[in-house]
Amino acid sequence: MTKSMPALFVGHGSPMTMITENPERRYLEWLGPRLPRPEAILTVTAHWETNGAAHITDGDHPRTIHDFRGFPEELYRKHYAAPNAPALQARIEELAGPGRVVRDTSWGFDHGVWGVLAMLYPDADIPVVAMSVDRAMGAEAHLELAQRLAPLRGEGVMIVGSGNIVHNLALYRSTMGTVPEWADDFRNRINAAVVANDHAALTRFSADDKAAAAAINSAEHYLPLLYAVGARLPGDEVAVFNDSIDGALSMTSYLFGDVTPAKPQDG
């Protein structure tokens, strides 16, 4: 019997995380070798939005997408040539149901995918399928799709949501170097809801919830969280890690499963 793989949500933040000295990068590099090695990885990325169906990458080795501008040349030289996972593609389609998933050769691994996996599994030798966020669906529908995909974890597949709990680029420059009260409030509420598996608190926000409005903002960075939450299995423990905030950006991340490594001493 295959041991269930963990599910993760990773706050990926700026591409600079990958090439600068910071505790978030150090932790992901430390964590990767301590996780069970999956047969394949499904990554739901904030940086690929579609409308009407979730798209999944296709082709032997999907291209590396440098979906950012004005960064150091070192970042544009980075490539993540992980192979495709045809069996996983077919299984995603089967579990999701007719018409809910579309194969797409036009996309590839954006930095929401390779920016996380390059730190966890730098050799790029594990097959990967990236999946878009279907913006035609509401939060509950994303959670329901994630629950449909949860059996993958028992089939050797690691599910990784990649985004940010607090993500508001319009406010980022004016709040850098601080921890705004609204961001801290929202982060703490979401942490509590994730640990408690409180789906309502993760998907329903009132119209006058100013902290949620500022944190979730355009929502594409928040919705991948629901794929890790929805893939939670009975008996899973939850570990919160990289729980930092810089202005309007949180790197808060979660690990679901029976593997909960302790945070290293150097952060």
Automatic annotation (TrEMBL):
It comes from the Bacteria. GO terms for molecular function: stizolobate synthase activity. InterPro entries: Extradiol_dOase_DODA, Xdiol_dOase_suB. Belongs to the DODA-type extradiol aromatic ring-opening dioxygenase family. CDD domains: 45_DOPA_Dioxygenase. Keywords: Dioxygenase, Metal-binding, Oxidoreductase, Zinc. This is 4,5-DOPA dioxygenase extradiol. It comes from Novosphingobium beihaiensis. Its cofactor is Zn(2+). SUPFAM superfamilies: LigB-like. Residues 8-231 form the Extradiol ring-cleavage dioxygenase class III enzyme subunit B domain. Pfam families: LigB (PF02900). Its EC number is 1.13.11.29.
